Each structure stands twice: as structure tokens, then as C-alpha cells.
């Protein structure tokens, strides 16, 4: 059986301070290197593609995979999936993996492929919130191609569109093993878990040149050197600065100031909602978060965004926090 595995690494990592998440170090390996090692152990016969930068892979690892960029760059994981599918050769099964999910066990990848092959349907496990993990799934390649053709334009569109109206074969897994990370705190939880399992400190960011920035050994076994992170961050996007300047003009003299970090957080939140289970416009979602904070000044931007996301991604029938 022919298998292609794609690792998605094309995001901006905005909520992670602009540090390329797949290139972050966990012990002796980066996140993307850990994922590739797991893929090789689980599916040694698979052809591996990286959708996005190969930063974080060793020269030997980078030479063993093929890579492609979504067009335009930073246009979302669905665009990355589409780019790989259009570039790769024939394969019976395609496995889709997020590039910031370092705890996936080899056995789960094999189970995904087996379940998809036997059912003729996409196969996926559920995360710690009971939601299907769209970016850790196996597909019959022909069905994946058909779904992409049906969707058409993939730029800035949600990966869940691939699954709309389809039956999905569930695959059991420990939800704590299909976790990804978007923030420093989420990364630290993963680092601590690996540290406890390995009995040694694990962690540290890798800068754009691949060098470690602030290892866990230097910062207390799994924590992150925030000074090192700040020094490794990419410049704040010009669009963020323009929005901040406009906001500063419009809100001059207002009690609620909008910081550069707040604007960046709202923009990233809107992008995150776009790729979530919510069908609400990300613009509306960001507006709701801003409205909530305006009504409750003691609520931080982060708390407002989290409350809105919880409401918008709650399964049908759930109680709205606005009514609780």
C-alpha cells in the first residue's frame, strides 16, 4: 500500500511570539523532527511531504522529505493540504499531521491508516475537548482529492470543510497525545510532560537559524526563557501596526487603551476561529470579544477571547455562557 504523510508547518505562530513552532526544541530534537521520527517509525514506507518551511529539520532529515509552500504563503492549513495533494505522486492513503503536535505515538498513526483503509473513509481521533482532530487524520487519497475539488478555493478557509457531510471513522487515542500548542503556556505543559516521562529537562525555543534559544535546563526544567523568546521573535507585522495606529487615533482619550499585543491577539484569534468548528465569521467573533471587554472592563483581552471561543465552538445544544 502506498502512503503519503504531510506535515503542516506553514503558520505564522503569531500567538507564540512569531517563533516558528515546528522548530522549537524539545530535548535533543525539535518538534518537527520528533514528528518526522514518529512517522518514520510508524510508516517507514511512506513518502513524507512538508507543507511549509522545513526549519527545525536537520540537513539529513530535510533531504529525506519533499516540501511545498501554500499559495499564497500563510493562507492556512487547508491551502497547505491542497498544495501537497497537487504536488505529490499517487498514493492510496494520505495522512495529514499538524506540525505542532509532538506527542503523537507511532501506534496511532498505524491505527489511522488501518481504519481509513478498511472503511474507505477519513479516520481521526478526538482531542481533550471531544472534538475530532482534523489535523491528525488519514484519508483515502482519492476521496481527499474529490473533497478539495468540491471546495475549490482553499485560501484562508477552514480544514473542517473537508469533513462536512462525511462520516468519519473514529480511532481511539489518549486525548492528551493529540494536543498541539499555540501559546507558551501550552508548550510548557507539553515540555513538562516529556520531562516527567524522560526523567530529564526538556524544552527551549529554536531561533530562525535552528539554534536553541533558552533551554529548559537553564530555566527550571521545562519552562521557557522569555527573554530569549523575545529576542527571537519576528517583527510585528505591518498590518498589526497599522491597525494599532488606527485604533489609537479612534480611541484617543478613551479609558481602554489597545496595546500592540492586544491587536495582535485579536487578529490571531480571528484567524483561529476561521479554522475552528464555528461557522460564525471571524470578524464577528473578534467583534464579540471586543464588545465583551467593553462591557466588562475588568476582563482581559485574553479572557474575552477565550470566552467567545468557548461559546462559538460549543456543540449544538450547549448552554450559552451569555445566559449562565
UniProtKB/TrEMBL annotation:
InterPro entries linked: MobA-like_NTP_Trfase, Molybde_CF_guanTrfase, Nucleotide-diphossugar_trans
Keyword rRNA-binding carried by entry: no
Alphabetical UniProt keywords: Cytoplasm, GTP-binding, Magnesium, Metal-binding, Molybdenum cofactor biosynthesis, Nucleotide-binding, Transferase
Recorded superkingdom: Bacteria
Domain MobA-like NTP transferase: 6-151
Name the UniProt record assigns to this protein: MobA-like NTP transferase domain-containing protein
Annotated source species: Brevibacterium metallidurans
Phylogenetic placement of the source organism: Bacteria, Bacillati, Actinomycetota, Actinomycetes, Micrococcales
Amino acid at each position: 500500500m502506498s502512503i503519503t504523510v504531510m506535515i503542516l508547518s506553514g503558520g505564522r505562530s503569531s500567538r507564540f511570539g512569531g517563533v516558528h513552532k515546528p522548530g522549537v526544541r524539545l530535548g535533543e530534537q525539535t518538534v518537527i523532527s520528533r514528528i518526522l521520527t514518529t512517522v518514520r517509525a510508524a510508516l517507514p514506507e511512506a513518502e513524507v511531504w512538508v507543507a511549509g518551511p522545513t526549519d527545525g529539520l536537520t540537513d539529513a532529515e530535510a533531504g529525506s522529505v519533499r516540501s511545498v509552500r501554500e499559495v499564497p504563503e500563510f493562507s492556512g492549513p487547508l491551502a497547505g493540504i491542497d498544495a501537497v495533494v497537487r504536488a505529490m505522486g499517487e498514493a492510496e492513503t494520505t495522512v495529514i499531521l499538524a506540525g505542532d503536535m509532538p506527542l503523537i505515538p507511532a501506534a496511532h498513526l498505524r491505527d489511522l491508516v488501518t481504519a481509513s483503509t478498511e472503511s474507505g473513509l477519513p479516520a481521526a481521533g478526538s482531542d481533550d475537548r471531544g472534538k475530532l482532530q482534523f489535523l491528525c487524520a488519514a484519508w483515502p487519497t482519492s476521496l481527499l482529492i474529490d473533497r478539495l475539488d468540491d471546495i475549490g478555493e482553499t485560501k484562508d478557509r477552514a480544514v473542517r470543510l473537508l469533513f462536512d457531510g462525511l462520516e468519519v471513522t473514529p480511532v481511539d487515542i489518549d486525548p492528551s497525545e493529540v494536543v498541539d500548542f499555540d501559546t507558551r503556556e501550552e508548550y510548557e505543559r507539553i515540555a513538562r510532560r516529556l520531562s516527567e516521562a524522560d526523567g530529564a529537562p526538556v524544552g527551549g525555543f529554536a531561533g530562525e537559524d535552528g539554534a536553541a534559544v533558552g533551554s529548559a535546563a537553564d530555566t527550571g526544567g521545562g519552562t521557557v526563557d522569555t527573554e530569549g523568546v523575545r529576542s527571537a521573535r519576528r517583527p510585528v507585522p505591518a498590518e498589526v501596526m497599522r491597525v494599532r495606529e488606527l485604533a489609537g487615533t479612534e480611541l484617543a482619550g478613551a479609558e481602554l487603551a489597545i496595546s500592540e499585543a492586544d491587536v495582535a491577539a485579536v487578529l490571531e484569534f480571528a484567524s483561529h476561529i476561521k479554522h475552528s468548528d464555528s461557522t460564525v465569521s471571524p470578524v464577528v467573533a473578534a467583534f464579540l470579544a471586543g464588545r465583551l471587554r467593553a462591557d466588562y472592563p475588568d476582563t482581559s483581552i485574553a479572557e474575552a477571547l477565550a470566552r467567545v471561543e468557548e461559546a462559538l465552538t460549543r456543540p449544538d445544544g450547549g448552554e450559552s455562557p451569555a445566559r449562565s
